[in-house]
Each structure stands twice: as structure tokens, then as C-alpha cells.
Amino acid sequence: MAKVLKVTKEKLEEMKQELDYLKTTRNDEVAEQIKIARGYGDLSENAEYDEAKNEQGKLWSRIAELEAEIQNAEIIEEAAGSEDVVSYGSKIVIRFEDDDDEEEYTIVGTREVDPAEGKISDESPIGKAVMKHRAGDVVTVDAPSGRLNCTIVSVTR
Fold first, then answer.
1. Is 108 helix (H, G, I), strand (E, B) or coil?
2. Closest to 72 measured CA to CA, from 144, 2, 155
3. Over the stretch 104-126, which tens digit does the pLDDT of each residue have?
4. Euclidean distance between CA atoms 120 and 106, whole angstroms
5. Cα separation of 93 and 121, whole Å?
6. Which runs of consecutive H residues, i.e. helices, occur in the chain?
7. What is the model's pTM?
8. What values do phi and psi take at 81, rounded to 5?
């Protein structure tokens, strides 16, 4: 059974646009590369042909990957109800008890994770720990380095 991929409506639309581009424009470009490379003669010693065929394989692989992800995508909605409860789309500030450092994160779907931008998924250790909690709650994060206690300082949208 394929894994459900949690994404926002916007991310799903981006994925569909990429798929459309790959199936049309990019596929035509690669087909043209293969056609040109065939014109160079003996295919057994034709590096351009080999490279074009490798590119075609990568393209078809990416198309299959995107189709599977789109088919198994589950659109996540920002939770209706209380604005101060952590859910998808929440921006949170947490303070770790061991060093009093504060960090800011946005809870996103698994396909939109970008740690450099502070975007974490609900499946990450911090994401799992804070989901459905409120500002002021103390939660325990089961991190790879061990258990960490932290306080949710604020929750905004």
C-alpha cells in the first residue's frame, strides 16, 4: 500500500503543473535529443545517444514518481476552530528547557518540508510532539538525540 502524502492545495497544484510540463514540453525536448543523437551513426559507440536515453529514463522515472504522489496525495486543511491550537499551517515558537533557546517553525505537509526555512512536517519529532497542543503547553519531543522537553511559547496562523 502506498504511503499517503500530505500536501496543501497549492503544493498539489504545483505537482500537477510539474507533471504536465514533464509529460509535454520536457518529453518533447528529450525525444528531440534522441532523434538528433541517432543521426550521429553507430548507436553502440554514441555517447550522445546514451546520454539522451539516460535522460529519458530519468524523465520517465520522475513522471511515474509524481503520478504516484498525486494519486496518493491527501490535501491538508488548516484546522477549523481554535487559532491557538497547533495544526497544519501553524507558526509556532518553542523554547527548549535544557538551554532556553527559542526556535520558530511552521507546520507543513511532508512534501513541503524545508528545515532551512523552518518548515517541518507533523511527522517530524517536533511536529508530532506539538500537534493539537496550545501555547503554554509543555511537550516532550522524542528526538534521535533523546527526549527533550519544550514549552510552546506561541501559536499563530
1. strand
2. 2
3. 999 988 888 999 999 999 889 99
4. 6
5. 15
6. 9-21, 27-38, 47-71, 125-130
7. 0.68
8. 115, -140
